[in-house]
């Protein structure tokens, strides 16, 4: 009898709690972006968007939970066991807990509002609460639907040396994007934008994931949905296991820049690691385009001296410093080549530091060459499929979720670090597209092997930052083929592209500052570019001044045969390095405004202008570029300034007077460049 009374009491309490949930609308807000949740008649429902768009909208949208065991997971299939709000300082969240009525499947989800950034992050994890496996085909990290019609959508295609080309289309049909090359931005960037033209509203979503993924835009209703793509197309969730999905961040604004800048503020204030003390956006020299893999201690000496003369702050030795055989097939045997460095790396390290620069070194620790000693000894540490180690171009892929592989990589790095008396900048490359077919150590296709490796690699990067807090970590993947919010949270900067040619570099600077905070990306001046460091002596110095100013739209570096440069070009280098050091504090964490459309990568025409505004709106920098078929003057209508504040304006170190923010934003600023392929930098400072 007591048991029956207890059961009735628990039933009544549970029913009352859920009834309370059903009567309550839970809401979080950041700036004017709102997410609301409620327990509707068909299960958990939401609405989200800018306040002006949704405040009078009565439509509630059903959650999309993907499908499991070949059945669509509907909100009505789940019992809502909890919804609650929580606050941690200026970060507010709504969390919910759902249990499937038939399957042993639990979902714990959360929406988080980050202060007044205007960014909402959606996270979720699925847990198998039963005693048998559950097969899941697709689970979205996040899905957002918006009211109204007549939308456009924008996305970015990506490929080696052609990263992040923006495309915009009318949303006439549902469209699917699939990226399953094994690295996040090898096909598309994990970034999507919806634009409702009637209301002038833009929504941008970014998936924080460095592996395979899918995304879609839907028409009725207008929807953005982004998901992790599981190995082999499905996930087997074993009893007691939990699968944490990548997070999805979304924001909105009245322009694409307005929405993007909110995501920039989230990156600046909550996501990106702080740069190490004494290494704020340092000017790098990198050996790659000067010497390629033929680096030796002797060949590097004149480059060290010249880079120091230019004012470079970090000198990085790129690939080729290790082993005596084929550097590509023997990668993984991390010992300095005794023929190239007879006294070890320390000779060059001492030379670099005595010249007043910090020392950097290239690694690719996720890969083993098929002829490396380590692969011969431990093939079981590698990702595999059908019992064979995954390979691409003679290279095998380590699994950083394997504790021995994780420790080996840390130990190898630490040994070289100590041999060099410290490393100030590490460039971590990743040159394989390994696909989407994997199995676990027992040969079972569970769907999460790449997922576990990526989570392990994130943890490994965090270990580097913990053990070597003064070291800058540069992420690289055949250029920018693994750049996303996931890896950006664990590395300080990412190499933009292997193509350093001036023309495509302009277009990539434009799109990367739409997706990323400027300090999160890194590029160089080289020469002709695209693996050609040739300097044409017949070109005017003004053209090379144009080239120098292109990589100033992020972290700036030089990689070229600088010991062959003319005195005039060397003087141009010194002048531009000094300029960059002056403006980098503004560019690093700025709001970015794209004052022109994205230039064509192969044959840009007209003008390109980018504006950077400091968070306090007291300073701004505008980078301006004139290409072919263009008039000699350009009027830049500036944005983001304080309308009432007075600003001192200079163009290429020449004072242009004092203007109010209102004048600069309404009447604009005229820039004159008499020749094509020239550039100017405008500096705007609080008077």
From TrEMBL:
By its UniProt entry, which InterPro entries does this protein fall under?
Aldolase_TIM, Alpga-gal_N_sf, Alpha-glycosidase_related, GH, Glyco_hydro_36, Glyco_hydro_36_C, Glyco_hydro_36_N, Glyco_hydro_b
Question: Its Gene Ontology molecular function terms?
Answer: alpha-galactosidase activity
GO biological process terms, semicolon-separated? carbohydrate catabolic process
For this UniProt record, the keywords arranged alphabetically read as follows: Glycosidase, Hydrolase
Instruction: From the Swiss-Prot or TrEMBL record, give the protein name.
Output: alpha-galactosidase
* Residue span(s) of domain Glycosyl hydrolase family 36 C-terminal: 607-682
Which is a Pfam family this sequence falls into?
Glyco_hydro_36C
Gene3D superfamilies recorded? Aldolase class I, alpha-galactosidase from lactobacil brevis, Golgi alpha-mannosidase II
Which class of enzymes does this protein belong to? Answer: hydrolase
EC numbers on record: 3.2.1.22
Cite the SUPFAM superfamilies for this sequence. (Trans)glycosidases
Reactions catalysed, semicolon-separated, are: Hydrolysis of terminal, non-reducing alpha-D-galactose residues in alpha-D-galactosides, including galactose oligosaccharides, galactomannans and galactolipids
* PANTHER family for the chain: ALPHA-GALACTOSIDASE C-RELATED (PTHR43053:SF3), GLYCOSIDASE FAMILY 31 (PTHR43053)
Location of the Glycosyl hydrolase family 36 N-terminal domain: 90-222
This chain's source organism reads termite gut metagenome
* This protein's record includes keyword Hydrolase: yes
